[in-house]
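pls ignore typos typing on phone
adenosine-5'-triphosphate + seq
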Amino acid sequence: MELRQSDDGSARTHAIRAEQAYVTGLYERLDTVRQQTRAALRAADAAGGRSGYSALMDREARSNEQARRLSQLSGVENGLCFGRIDHRGDRDGDAVDTLYIGRIGLRDESHETILVDWRAPAARPFYAATPVSPGDLVRRRHLHTRDRVVTGIDDEVFDLDGLSDTDRRSLVGEAALLAALRRGRTGRMNDIVATIQSEQDRVIRSRLQGVLVVQGGPGTGKTVAALHRAAYLLYTHRDTLKRRGVLVVGPNPTFLRYIGRVLPSLGESDVVLSTVGELYPGVRATASDPVATALVKGSDSMVGLVRAAVADRQRVPSSSGMSVSANSGSGDEGASGGTRDLEIEVDDMTLRVDHADCLGIRDRTRSLRLPHNVARKFFVTEMLRLLARNQAEQLDPMLDPAEPAYYDETDLDYMGAALWQQEPVRRGLDELWPLLTPQRLLETLYADDAALARVGAEAGLTESEWKGLSRPLGSPRTVGDVPLLDEAAELLGEDDAEERARRRRVERDRADAERYAQGVLEFTGLFEDPMMGASALAERHDDADRPRSTAERAEADRTWAYGHVIVDEAQELSAMAWRMVMRRIPTRSLTVVGDIAQTGSPAGARSWSSMLAPYAHGRLHEERLLVNYRTPAQIMAVAADVLAEVAPDQQPPESVRDDGDPPRAVRVGAEGSDGTTLAEALPRLVEEELTAIGEGRLVVIVPDARHTEIAGLLPDAAADATPDALDSPSTVLTTTRSKGLEFDSVIVVEPGEILEQSPQGGHDLYVALTRATRRLTVIHEALLPDMLGRISRQAGPPLGGPCVEAPGPRLST
Ligand SMILES: Nc1ncnc2c1ncn2[C@@H]1O[C@H](COP(=O)(O)OP(=O)(O)OP(=O)(O)O)[C@@H](O)[C@H]1O
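k done
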């Protein structure tokens, strides 16, 4: 496209006008495509033709595809086109070849590309070109738009000689990146599709296979790059990933809500977002364990513990009246009591099975190496046979057991089946080899100290370790329990007879409903209407088993194998959590995003290779992000001092921004202040900071133990870590809950206490200090830790008021 300077305006104005004309054309085309898709959706919904369940499924699939396309087209309204690249070249004799880059690809009526999808290979130079290696790019232009209006342009010129005189005059310099970074925060992460940097682009376009680790300090764009990678992979490997889906694992529901808008804005909504605490279908765990317990539950000795817990429920009768645990399988019955025969009272008769026979059946059942619930069928059948034989002997003592007819297996099976209907028989056998859910297994284990001691010893736990697991029945489930549930589910397996029966029932009911609907249509005379079929009518009244999207099916299925998994804040995952995640991705196609320097969980990672090598089978590839796009340099310098103390081997990232306000320290309630208490000073400080940031977001980050107290001082701030907490202008969070988030203003309360609160306290403090995009204040009664010396030095000498502060808004007294 040739830009011409008009007589009545600057070259820039003219360039914007020209871009506006192009962008208007793109929106017109978008409107047309939307109309066409809407019509296709209506047609798919109304399609008649074959009736029956499979035809219904086909129709649903077509309709879902059109609906997905329509939602993609609606998601790209804002910032449809955000850039253009001019290649050196002479296609059609032009001096430059121009491509426009946007959120989706568009073609005009004659199938010429008018907008290139940002994920397409042709768009790559827009992100990858640098002044050092520009390839054949002459210029990269960012287009800024509001609604459908072009409000500005930014150019980066790689080859001035390649531009015409007019083009050169129209160059504008405002850096698109910095403009994006300076925007006030809204509590929701935005996509960065217009300003992806080349190191991030490498991450985004890395190949699908293998384990990609993205290590980077705070604010380096790990999360946002990982989300763009999800969109890129879905675009590039649509066939594979459409069937298997993509899972994004984040640290908590607030974080998931924070990032929740990015993928839809990139036209991808069919992705499962989950925390570790929600990864087991039907479970929503948010509570956490004390540090020592979390450490034990996260360690891989839990593999042995869960295995021993299952074996502990495969019992033989004992003389102490309770069933004897028999973990060893050797026949040595352990400490719980001596041996006893199985005795069950049925119809005035005591049925008996020898202890040795019970032991033999149990060991044979175990040797099948089937999951516990699946193997139960064998155990029960064998036990029933022996009970039936005993019953036959007692009913007719004259029968000679040596007589062949006596041992007719069919008779015994028949008698056994009748015995299975008797409550005492069921109860007796259930006690020996119960049908177990993972939840029941763990809850009853935690509530039974004797079982914990047995099972803990078997798994090699110390007394204090297994005692840390003890808790009463009905206690809230913790996030650390979820990987153990998953582990237990693997060992227990499912007896899927019920599910198969359910499906048969659903199909039968659907056929009934269709027959009934056909009758209704005939009765009402509507059967001649081509828009109305019996299956469609039946379906209107029953959509319980309607075909669901890949994401919906994946989310509901514990054994679903995803096509790709992205784990964010991955340093927090314990060894047990990794086992759970890896079960969901047998192909090991993963993106692992995190920062070892920010590990706060006692059971989290200290090194990527030690955590991931066992799974990666040599296919571990690491990319590093080194530039901090969030935290201005002055604030980052304070955080870097903390990092140097707590993890001297880790490098802090370099800030791209130096435009924040100087960080400050405010001392209250002690020497150096006028005695103002924290309770008086904090609400005023919050108010001042909110005024200073205008429309943005503020967080007060507190030591774990003081969350309730400090939330009580700030009634207007959101304090529960609910997903919508970030909709409020101010929020009170612990460091754990603030992971991955960012705020215009951050107030850290009593950093010394955060430092001391756990062995990982220094890392927590580093996380807290790096959440700020503009302003950081530390408020404290106790002396500041030495590692925060810079903030007090920056603050200068005490002013004699309640606070010691650097330039910037002062706390009014
Ligand atoms: N290329 C970019 N263009 C515009 N904004 C960017 C870019 N890269 C990162 N950002 C912004 O920088 C901020 C930090 O990004 P992000 O949260 O992804 O960092 P992170 O590495 O995950 O941080 P942390 O480890 O602290 O969670 C976000 O606001 C993000 O939108």
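The domain at 206-280+558-625 is CATH 3.40.50.300 (Rossmann fold). The two ends are 61 Å apart (CA to CA). more later
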